[in-house]
Amino acid sequence: MRVVVTGGAGFIGMHSVTALLAAGHTVLVIDDMRHRSSGELPAAADCVEADVATHAARDAVARFRPGAVLHLAAQGGVNRSWRDPVSDARCNVLGTVSVLRAAADSGATRFVLASSGGALYGDARRLPSHEDDIAAPRSPYGTAKLAAEAYLRLFTAGARMSGCALRYGNVYGPGQDGTGEAGVVAITCTRLLRGDAPEIRGDGAQTRDFVFAPDVAAANALALSSGATGAYNIATGAETPVCDVVSMLTSASGVEQHPVYVDAVHDEVRRSCLDTSRARAALGWHAATSLQTGLSATYDSFRGAAAAA
Ligand SMILES: NC(=O)c1ccc[n+]([C@@H]2O[C@H](COP(=O)([O-])OP(=O)(O)OC[C@H]3O[C@@H](n4cnc5c(N)ncnc54)[C@H](O)[C@@H]3O)[C@@H](O)[C@H]2O)c1
Q1: Tens-digit pLDDT profile for residues 279-295
Q2: Can you give the pTM of this predicted structure?
Q3: Which of 30, 41, 47, 72 to mutate to test the pocket of ligand 1 (most atoms within 8 A of CB)?
Q4: Are residues 225 and 199 in the same domain?
């Protein structure tokens, strides 16, 4: 299959492009490199450097004539979406509409949208959150993802193109940016390797559903090849306090470091955990990697990258 991956130079994008190439697909990455991963994009993937909302990106899709599009390109920071909700909506809503139109015009028959289970359900009344639960995002970022899902339904209703939204949990793994304000696993690895004490925002009892990036990449590949429609949670179904993750990474580092507690993020979702039974039934997917294994592999990769730098 010929697959366009928008945001393919980013963290989840790199894992997804690697998985798609390994499965024998031909891949075109469209990415403006505003937040590219530190990893090398595989040489077998072609790449066009462009903002997804531009004519250059739409022309690239038209020339490539993809069978399927994996739309990952997005502004991914919840805090940043509060600081600049207009830019967030421009990238995450208008960018998505632009890619949907380019995909439909080019004759693509399949579209997979990266959505967010962590941001969409808000403070859920019951856990784990199920796809049919009411979405109640508490940030411009989550609201933009909800709007993007609505546009996906609109562009795929009755059209030749089918599509689904994958609502990821808290994705972690090699290649994630550890220098920003999101991604507790990457940030903690980076701090530990610098010899800094790990930081915990708030009391650390806030929970997340942590899922390993190569498992998410496998879900993306399965969804692209399937005819599944609607929304699917892509996570583990397990709820883990942030302080436990910090403690597991500190153990993996082999250095005794006590965490420092800093101010909680304003209006942060307190608990997050996603029911993944629908993805298992429709895509035959489940998260294959345990948290312990994934965190150790992630810490080792950050250590390798730090040693090579
Ligand atoms: N990382 C997570 O925990 C998580 C959780 C839920 C959903 N998601 C979603 O998964 C997708 C990928 O996330 P990620 O963690 O890999 O983010 P990332 O920031 O590492 O990657 C995004 C990539 O998209 C590119 N990009 C951004 N805006 C663009 C634009 N307008 N035009 C072209 N390229 C653009 C960036 O340069 C970057 O390479 C995003 O849609 C994100 O919202 C991520």
Answers
A1: 999 999 999 999 999 99
A2: 0.97
A3: 72
A4: no
